[in-house]
Structures are given as C-alpha cells and as structure tokens.
Amino acid sequence: MREIYLDNAATTAVDPAVLKAMKPYWSEIYGNAMSFNDAGRKAKKAMEESRKKIARILGAKNQEIIFTSSATESNNLAILGIAKACKNKKIEIITTRADHHSVLEPIKKLEKDGAKIHYLPVNKEGFINLDQLKKSLNLNTALVSIIYASNEIGTIQPIKKTAKIIKEFRKRSGYPYFHTDAAQATSYLDINVNNLGVDLMTLSSSKIHGPKGMAILYVRQGTEIEPLIYGGGQEFGLRSSTPNVSLIAGFAKALEITNNEKGGTNKKLEDLRKNFINKLKRGLPGVKINGPEKEENLVPSIISITIPKIENEQVLLHLDKYGIRASAGSACASYDIEPSHVLASIGLSKEEARWSIRFSLSKKTTKTELDYVLKIMPKVVNTIERLYPKDLKKQYHTKS
Predict the structure, then answer these.
(1) Running DSSP on this structure, what letter comes out for residue 199?
(2) pLDDT category, 256, cuts 50, 70, 90?
(3) 218-234: per-residue pLDDT in tens?
(4) CA 265: distance to chain centroid?
(5) What structural domains does the chain harbor?
(6) Phi and psi, residue 383, nearest 5°
(7) Nearby residues of 119 by Cβ (< 8 Å), 6 or more positions away
(8) What are the pLDDT digits (tens) for 377-391?
(9) Is 86 a catalytic residue?
(10) Catalytic residue among 10, 130, 189, 332
C-alpha cells in the first residue's frame, strides 16, 4: 500500500544529505567534545563548526546558540530560565491562548507558583491584537512569548511589530525579554534574529528534515537567564550534558539546506495548497478551512479543515486504511485525540474541533499525492456517513 505522509508539522523525514553529514560522528569522530584529548578536540571542532554555521544563518553570535534536545526543552529553558533569573521580581508573563503546549504548560506552572499571566486572545484567523499587547505590558512584565507560526492553523504572528513594541517599552526598565517559538516557521519565514528583533528563539531539527532529539535556543547576549539542567556547565553554562555531535551536525546541515531551498519550497507549497483547497471544496462542499484567508498570512505547509458532523478520529482511521497519514492537530500534547485549544481560541466549539483534521505538507509532498487524497476524501466521508447514520443529520453532502 502506498503511503502519503501529511503529518510534517509533527515531524519530517530526514533528508539523505543530512544522514550523510551525520554518519562520520557515529563511527569515526566519536569522542566526547568536552574531553581534553585529540578525539575530544576533533569532536569539539565539528560541533563548533556546526554552531558557527547555524549562527551565521540566524545572524547571531556563536555563543548565542544553545543546543538542546527538543523544541519543548528550548521553550521550557526560555520561559523557566528567565523566570528563575528574576529572583526578586514579581513575575508577569504575556503569551497567547493559541501558543504551543510546550510554552503554555511551563507558563501554567509559573502561574501556580504565583506569577501573573496575561493570555492574549486571538481573532478567528488566529492573530493577536497589538493594542491588547501594549495594554498588557507593565513594569513587572518579565517575558513575552508568542509563537511565530501556528503548528495547527498556520497563522503567522506579527513578530517584527511585536518586537518593536517591546523594545520601546523596555527603555523604562530593561524588561521584558521577547521569546518566539519558530519551530514551524523555520522552513518558510525570515529567521534572522536581528530582523525579527527577538531575544530568544526556538528552532527544531525534526521540523526541517533533520534528526529528532535536536533543537536550539537562541539567547541574545546579555539576556539574564538561568539553566534548568545542571552538571558540567556545557553550552555556556546553560545546558549541561555530553554534546551529541552527530545530531548537532545533522541539524546544521538541515538548516543550511532549508535556508537555501526556502524560496522554491514556499512557491511549490503555495501552489499545492491552493490547488488542494480549491478541489477539496468542490469534492466536499461543506468543508471549512481554518486559519487566515489570505495566503501571505500563513505558512503554506498547513491545511486545517473542519468537516461538519464527521468525527476526526473516524476520518483519521479511515485515511490510514488508504495509507494517508494526517492528524487531528498538535502531536505534542498526548496520544489521545482531544479538542484542540488552538481551534477553541479562534472560536470553534468543542464539537467543531472534533470535526477538524490537519494536513501538513513538506518539500517532499507532490501533486500526485495530494490528488490521491482528494480522490479518497469523499469516499471516506461517504463511508462514515453510511456506517454511522444515527450520528449524522445528513446536513453534510459529498460529491463522489
């Protein structure tokens, strides 16, 4: 059975060139990069060359690149690390109701411990209101953390404008710092930290055809932040552990390839997405597209749809039978399919969220694959309507 993989927002296939870049560090240059011997020095040289490559792409300094194990760890380090550094400061943090769980959960922990949290609402397309951000800022605000591009509906937040507002406010007290989770934005948007104006930024290897288990946190020099993991003081004292040089090399190569291919990838996916949505609406007239209406306001890899009266769990199980791999939203919360907090934040009811699925594309996605999905989707919906007639009011009709 053919497999059509459309869950790339969860993770991507490793690029063959990335595998090739990693191979020497499994069996040839395998020393501990912290060891004071020739094997260690070779490993450290390779690690620092990768760090330099990444820093150059981001417009950052080498020492501002901190290697971690995942975007979740990077987000936790950014949020909890800033909070820990504010020992005698009454903590207030601003985030959005549509941010990723790995941002919201550490923030909720701080809230339980006494921090005051401002959750910015988003509109029906997933955008924050910059005036509300301005009103939420005060002299106790230590951190603003706003996702760059939504992993569920693709919305691109106005990060540059947000940074300008924060920079202007910061003249009063030196705070707040500004963090963005750019894991879903890396393949498609500007990630130069100077252009964006961020103080902290999360990137993930597994979202850009690199290996799992590797990510970075960019930390602007001078940012007051404390580590979460203690030990040998690696990563400039911010993340102790033996460096995984093979994964680091793989991430650097994946980022290099992504950066070079960005323009072509965007154009290809924009065309694929537009064609897919137009044909999907003809085949399933009642389908609703979630997220921004204008293509320039969302990353081209995300397609979130709601099929009225059709449970997403049933759709996903039937799609699997045809070899089509999709998802109900974020794969980072739990294995269970729960109503998406992101979809709730843009106004969908719990029922509508349960009727929603996400297709997420990558540079490897082809028109032939999407045409196959378009052929199968009406069959799947008709099958579900036939199997569960008592659960449906037949308000939804498909064209075979």
Answers:
(1) S
(2) very high
(3) 999 999 999 999 999 99
(4) 17
(5) 4-10+261-384 (3.90.1150.10), 16-257 (3.40.640.10)
(6) -65, -45
(7) 95, 96, 97
(8) 999 999 999 987 655
(9) no
(10) 332
